[in-house]
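__Protein archive entry__

___
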Amino acid sequence: QVHLVESGGGLVQAGASLRLSCVVSGGTFSSLAIGWFRQAPGKEREFVAAVSASGDSTYYADSAKGRFTMSRDNAKNTVYLQMNTLKREDTAVYYCAANSWGEHELTLSNRNAYGYWGQGTEVTVSS
């Protein structure tokens, strides 16, 4: 059973940065693709970024491109989401999720492709 735990959320002002972490246990980390999703109040959970199991490929939603950077550290079983120039519309609960079979953007950007989810970490961006 794969277990994911997010951390790093908080309350920040617009323009600030945050780094989210997701620690993964219970599986073979290097075989897992990991995605970040977010859910704002009253909205559906949406794709933010994903990294392939190999780490060779990362994918970003248009809203994240140029501001967010996702990385993985296989030695620490951890993935990171560096978020810069945060905007009010980035306010949401951020979730990481694990996928054991996908590699391509079409799959990894689909929340239904993930079988394991963390509990989420809340990010609030004030103006």
Remarks:
- The first helix runs from residue 105 to 108.
- The helical segments are 105-108.
- The mean pLDDT is 96.
- The first strand starts at residue 3 and ends at 7.
